[in-house]
Amino acid sequence: MPTGVNRLVVIGASAAGLSAAAKARRNDPGLKITVLEKTDEVSVGLCQLPYLISGYIKEPSEVVAVPVEALREKRGMDVRLHHEVQSIDLTKKKVTFRDLETQKEGEVSYDRLVAATGSRSIRPPIPGLSAPNVFALHSLGEALAIREYVKDRAPKEAVIVGGGYIGLEMAEALTRNGLRVTIVEMLPNVMGTMDDELTELVEDHVREQGVNLLLSSRLDEVRLNQEGCAASVVAGGKEVRADMVLLALGVRPNVELAKAAGIKLGATGAIATDWKQKTSDDSVFAAGDCCESHDLGTDRKVWIPLGSTANKQGKVAGDNLSGGYSVFRGITSTAICKAFEIGIGRVGLTEKEAKKLGLDCESVVVTPRSRAGKCPGARMIRLKLVFERVGGRLLGGQVVGEDGVLARTDVLACSMYHRMTVEEIGRFDLAYAPPFAPAWDPVLVACNLAVKKVKPS
To answer: Is the N end or the C end of the chain the one with fewer CB atoms within 10 Å?
Structure first.
C-alpha cells in the first residue's frame, strides 16, 4: 500500500465505486473506506431493470448485487446513504457533503478518492415532461414506480421516446405487461448505433410484435389532461395517445463535481483518466459512466457507458490506489441487447462511423443459418463486418438474429481486441456440431467473403 494511504473515500455506490472499494479492501484489510451515496440504492444492476418490469426477474432484491448490510458488516465499509456530495477540495483533500435526511452538512478527509458519480438521464426542455406518468429508467426506484403504475393504473397505451437499447428492451417489457407500445425516434431507424442492413431486421421484428414505430420524428410536446397527467404525445406532426410515457433518450456523464473541483475533462465531456484510472489529480481516480475509455480499434478516447466497463475500471482503480498495479487497456465498444426474440450485438465501428472518421473501409453482409442444416433451433442470422480496405484489419461487426448472436459477437470482440485482420479471423478453428453451429460458422463465411475485397498492404 502507498505510504500515507489510510483513508479512501468513494463517491457513488454503484458498480464502479463498489468495485473499487472491494478491490481496495482485498488489498488492504485495514484501510478506512467511506462510501457516500446520494440515494438509498446500493449495488443495483441497472441493466437488469427492464427485466424486472417485464417480470422476467421477479423480485427487486434480485437486481442488488451486494446488500448494504453486507458492505458494512462483512466488508467493513462505512456506507452512508442519502449523503449528497457538495464539493471536492483537492488541496485539503476533503469532501463536503449534505445529509439529505437531517439536512446537516459535514466533511470527510481522504488520502485517495474515487469519483464514481455515474451518469444522468437526458431530459430535454419539452412541455409536459413533469407529469406524474412520465417516467425515466435510471434507478431501481424509477423501475419500481413504473411497475407499480402499470399494476395499479392498468394503462393501455405507452409511448417510449427513444429507440435505442433501453427503448427496445422497455418496448418488450411493456408489451409483455399488455400495453400497446409506440416508439418515437428522431433518427430514421431504431438502434442508431447500427447500420441500416441490421436495423431493418430489428424494425421488422418489433413491428411483428405489435410495436408501432414513429421514425424520423422528434418529440415536440407531451399534452396533459385536466388532472395534469400525460394523455398524448406530439411528435413529427402526429399526435399519439399515451397513458404513460417513458423517456429513453440516453444519458450524459455526471461530471459537475469533478469539473468544479478542477479535475480535467476529456474531449468527450467525461473525466479524463490514464491507464490506471488516475485523473489529472494524483490522489483522485475515476471509474464508470463518469469517465472516458480508450477505444482499442481507433486509439481515440470515447465515452460509452456500460456496466461491464464500470466494473473493470473500478477494479483497476481500487487496485492502484491501494498498493497494487493494474491497467485498463480499453474497450472494443462491445454491446448486446435483446428485443423480444432477437439478439442485437455490435463491436467496434459501424460502417457509418468508420466513414465519418475518414477511414478507408469496406464491408460485407451475410445471412447464413445459425446452426447446421435443419437442426432444431436453427435460424437465419445476419452478420456485417467492417474492415480496412488495405490490409483487412477488422474495424467492427454487427450481428442480429434469433439464435447464436452472443457467440458471434464475442468472437468479433476478441478479434478486435487483438487487432486482427479478416484473413486471420477466417482461419479460426471455431467449434462445430450441428446443434450449435454449421461447419462454416457465420463469422468464417463473412471473413472469407471479406478477404476478396481486401487490397494487400
So the answer is: C
Q: 386-423 as b/e, with b when 16 or more CB fall inside 10 Å?
A: bbbeeebbbbbbbbbbbbbbebbbebbbebbbeebbbb
Q: Give catalytic residue positions.
A: 47
* Position 52 in a domain: no
Nearest to 366 by CA among 436, 433, 297, 451: 451
Domain boundary among 232, 249, 266: 249
Residue range 85-93: average pLDDT?
Answer: 98
Write out the three cell numbers for 292. 472516458
Same domain membership, residue 218 and residue 200: yes
Would the pLDDT of 319 be above 60? yes
For the CA atoms of 7, 12, 13, 19, the dihedral, rounded to the nearest 10 degrees, stands at: -70
DSSP string, 26-56: HH-TT-EEEEE-SSS--SB-GGGHHHHHHTS
Residue ranges making up the domain that contains 385: 341-451
Largest CA distance in the chain: 69
Cα→Cα distances 311→52, 103, 316, 414, Å: 21, 32, 9, 19
Of the candidates 284, 293, 371, 292, which has an alpha carbon nearest to the alpha carbon of residue 329? Answer: 293
| 23-41: average pLDDT | 96
Q: How far is residue 150's CA from residue 16's CA, in Å, rounded to a whole number?
A: 31
Spatial CA neighbour of 123 closest among 110, 138, 141: 138
**H-helix or E-strand spanning residue 320:** helix 307-321
First to last CA, the chain: 48
Instruction: Report the run of H or E that residue 352 belongs to, with start and end.
Output: helix 351-356
Q: Give pTM, 2 decimals.
A: 0.95
3-state secondary structure of 19: helix
Please tell me whether residues 354 and 442 are part of one structural domain.
Answer: yes
Q: Which amino acid is at 179?
A: L
Are 149 and 215 found together in one domain? Answer: yes
Using CA atoms, how far apart are residues 430 and 367, in angstroms rounded to an integer?
Answer: 18
CB 447 within 8 A of CB 423: yes
The answer, yes or no, to whether residue 99 has pLDDT greater than 70, is: yes
Question: In the block, which residue shows the cell 423517456?
Answer: 247
Cell match 485482420: residue? 421
For 311, the 3-state DSSP assignment is: helix
